[in-house]
Amino acid sequence: MGPDEKSAQAYWNESLTLVGLADELGYGHIRTVEHYCNRYGGYSTNPIVFLSAASQRSARARLITGALLPVFNNPLKMAGEIGMLDASSNGRMEAGFARVFLPHEFRTFGRSLDESIARFDEGIEQVRRLLEEEDVTLTGNFHSFENVTSLPRQRRFPARPSGMPPRRARNRSRRRDGWDTKS
């Protein structure tokens, strides 16, 4: 979706109107993705922002990021936003993560595609620890934190699969104490 087809204002207003019908029509979740600078993904650069607005239009639907991109985000910021949305939506937030596959996004952010897996693995592990633990010290290749407690936190981390083939999802989730993620 781009400006020559529909303005961002019209796109998001229509999306929120549809979200407002979710409870009445029996829809169980609202899902959006994170992408940048291209029609693929439309105007969706921050799923948390849209899902926060959606949480005010639906009282029951789960709010799912399908998916957040650790390669382009600081884990401390992601953990804070996930915790805030989960708290403000009465526990309806479920975070899905993806590794990213569009070369133009890597070019735009000045990141190497070769770092994709390492940034993904480090990022979601750091987000998980920041959401579940207090006084977290992490030394990573891309982000490090010393004695940090992210607020608001979650005692349970609601990660969801984001389209990964089942065998790969199982292998990854075993390595992450039950987390299902897309890489």
What's a quick, concise take on this entry?
With 183 residues, the protein is an alpha/beta fold. The chain has helices spanning 8-25, 47-55, 75-88, 103-109, 116-132, 166-175; strands at 29-32, 62-68, 93-97, 136-139, 144-148, 159-160. The chain starts with 7 loop residues before the first helix and ends in an 8-residue tail after the last helix.
Order of the strands making up the biggest sheet:
1-2-3-6
> Helicity, in percent?
40-55%
Largest sheet properties: 4 strands, parallel
Structural class: alpha/beta
Q: How is this structure best described in words?
A:
This protein has helices spanning 8-25, 47-55, 75-88, 103-109, 116-132, 166-175, and strands at residues 29-32, 62-68, 93-97, 136-139, 144-148, 159-160. The protein has 183 residues and is an alpha/beta fold. It has one domain (8-175): TIM Barrel, CATH 3.20.20.30. It has a four-stranded parallel sheet, covered by helices on one side. The chain has a two-stranded antiparallel sheet with strand order 4-5. Strand 2 (62-68), helix 3 (75-88) and strand 3 (93-97) form a beta-alpha-beta unit. Helix 2 runs parallel beside helix 3 (75-88) and helix 3 crosses helix 5. The longest helix has 18 residues, at 8-25. The protein is flat. The two termini are 25 Å apart. Mean pLDDT is 85; it is low at 163-183.
Question: Which descriptors apply to this entry?
Answer:
two-stranded antiparallel sheet; disordered C terminus; 4-stranded parallel β-sheet; alpha/beta; 6 helices; 6 strands; 183 residues
